DNA sequence: CTGAAAGCGCTTACAG
DNA sequence: CTGAAAGCGCTTACAG
């Protein structure tokens, strides 16, 4: 292999192979027909020079960067690293790559990031757990850059999203806890300014109400460990104490469990049953052994990338709000109702 | 704001503002002098049209993409999500953005990713916990794309890296455990094919040897939870059992702690003292309360990005191997020697 | 199948 | 300070 200390272009390869520059281009852009002998000559020359097409130039001319902008709220919650890896794998398999940004869930952090992504000419965007301002979503529609919200629903006609079936997940949590005989069931909810948090809570309380019951309490944990721990303390500060807690996600549930065991010296599940939401990998650690509703990251990712790529290929593609059913994963942190059907671990 | 369903270019703005296209360019590329009245006219026109310079075209011509390729081995170990967020923040602050890829630590996964990054015309690369083949590192040097290894050293003259001072960290772990009176100290090491793993072990055993002691055992945990748990079981299977364990990173240490408590029913630190390495956020959770050596992610990230950007600006920049001292963070998982100086939590 | 020509949307000397 | 011109490294009709 010949050393090349400076950038080698298609023209260099063309000269070395004795062909025109467009022919080199044809060899490297799939679908073009080049005579086999010519192709081999070009490939040999390219190999010798260490040539590789400049994707910047290619993107400029094709109008497709094959880049997907991914915006993630925070990686604190272990659901996101897991999802991010899977998103990357799925997109790479489809020959796209990721430009990533982190942004807290505030318009004034998210909007500038989206502008940057726009300047980078991304072909589409995935917004994980961040919401988008109306202004921006309109803007994206105008310039024709499709986007899908991942794990965060948002009202609005033209907004595609992929989430768990949060309402029905909330119901399932309540159903399980009621079936186990609990009567003082508290809910430390997901952030009530997010649809995820609202819907999980709505499903939970609706089921309870339909059984003629009321929630012991519903308090916003704001998807924060600290807040969830504080709410837990408050919940047990009075005379009347809950006998079960449904927590809006696993990330908070770990903090609740810790507070219950380490601070309040309670036994889980004997004193209190605990249910989370997500089924992140840590939930299955023996340390936590958390009963939870699984958000199937694989399927959510697959739904997200395929919808997004469809939107990119065909702008007329419907902006769906896809909900993926959550399965209850029964582990040791919550009392198991008699006759409850066995589930895998 | 005028709606624009199609892409708006500098030329459109120029026409609307009644100036030439290069003048528009000058307004948007910093440093160029434009009369104030003209600048304002152009900015107004740009705002009306929703114009934003196409960074692809800009990069093509300047030869700088302001993109840093980041390759991460896996996000399993919570150190990486934490570091990744910080890397992103640091790079964004310097007006760079990230193109991210995940690759297992194998040449045949890493090399193709680096090729892709090369085609994308990244200005530099950060390789987090992946090693690079000699072929590729030579190649990168030839094409003049600087890179720095993050949290993974590698021998070789022209290879820049930022790591913890792993050897001295290993020594500190041994020193602390010896001072606490332990005499049967085992080491579940980091992956012995990584310099991190080797050096932490070397520091540990060297200190012991200098005290006239020997390690109870040194077994490779391979940075894997499963492997670490299995090694823990093996360690306690015989008649002679360790009274302390130094684990090659926190990620494994959590699995060791779990096995110790949940499976082997041992009390930590009364039966066994445990020390990890990294000080990821979880280490401070009461659930784990892990004594550990802190890898200061902030400082490592800062060292990484500033060295990389220096290399980008001035190719003559020395390829340093920067080591950042690890501080021992004393928590509850290991017996505390008498008279040990108090440290912050 | 292949070459000559045009052009993607910018930046950057070069004149004025 | 500003415009006309050239050019970054490709792809894509258009002829042949």
UniProtKB/TrEMBL annotation, chains A, B:
Protein name from the UniProt record: LacI family DNA-binding transcriptional regulator
The record's listing under Pfam families reads: LacI, Peripla_BP_3
Its taxonomic placement starts with: Bacteria, Pseudomonadati, Pseudomonadota, Alphaproteobacteria, Hyphomicrobiales
What InterPro entries does the entry give? HTH_LacI, LacI/GalR-like_sensor, Lambda_DNA-bd_dom_sf, Peripla_BP_I
Q: Does the keyword Transcription regulation apply?
A: yes
Please state every residue range assigned to the domain named HTH lacI-type. Answer: 8-62
GO MF terms, alphabetically ordered: DNA binding
Species? Ahrensia kielensis
**Matches recorded under SMART domains:** HTH_LACI
Question: Which UniProt keywords are present, listed alphabetically?
Answer: DNA-binding, Transcription, Transcription regulation
